[in-house]
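user: can you give me the structure for this one chain? tokens are fine.
assistant: on it. calling the predictor now.
[tool input]
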Amino acid sequence: AEHGGLLGAAVCCAEQGGMPEDDWTTCDKDRDLLLDRIFTLAKERNLDIDFHTDENGNELARGLRYVAEKTLKYGYQGRVVCGHCCSLAYQPEHELRRTLAVAAKAGVTVVSLPLVNQWTQDRHGAGGRTPRWRGITLLHEARQAGVPVAIASDNTRDQFYAYGDLDMLEVFNQGCRMAHLDRPYGTWVQSVTSTPANAMHVFDHGRIRVGCPANFIIFPTARRYSELLSRPQYDRIVVRNGSPIDTELPSYEELDYIPNAVLKGQVPSSEVSYDRVSGAVIWKTRVASSDPHPVEKRGHAMVSNIVLKKSLEYVNSTNTAMMHNTIGILQKVEW
């Protein structure tokens, strides 16, 4: 906690999330016990919790509700974030009202990932098929129910989302279009400013007021939202601690850069993978990128995911994992 860490887990988040067949993230018979363990670990270590929930279009995926109920049980209001929550769009009206009511009471922040979820949900693996639904959660309904709602993107040019440039204006722009956050825009801009800042307990961020750091962005040519969201706003002025900073975008070649020290083998590089059969995290360390014989180490990052029933065997290990949370994106395994 002193280093700003989190606990991360996934609930009803697989392709078959919510269904008995999903023994990775739904864990039907053991879910209650596993969630108790996650909240117990969080309280013992004074850590906030970041859940990936209901990233599918399954009516039975109700991870948000399960998490909210445990949040109330453990008195963890205001310390829990649930990302994705796509399946809300498929829940019957009475189930939806029940889920949102308990989420609001628990103070769970729902984080929508419109770019990622629209790109992944209802996607045919081989292509050649048009998706039938938008894949995003019910932003309007959640906020109307009193649930704090934020918009973010947890992937950039990787296997989960092939595009993006870490631009929160783009995320807000596309979120407005996908979820119809206009007419009126109202206070929806808070979904990418003060609301995620509140979820991360950084209350002097995401707002402009006396006493806060002078960190903000000026869009000099945009006079209204329709103009702000119609162009990329390359002429933006980014102010940090009261002074403008360089806003020139790096070249893609620069982003591809690999330090010479790694190429020459002067510092080790690591690869992390996950053995789904044993539940082990496999950490391979190479002296150089061409090293054919990496040193392999196995361990169990128990709290990185509610994935296997056998994870209960490792709940007392010292391994921890840090997952993404709204604007902050960081993944790390500590041994």
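assistant: here you go. Confidence is low (pLDDT under 50) at residues 297-335. The longest strand covers residues 269-275.
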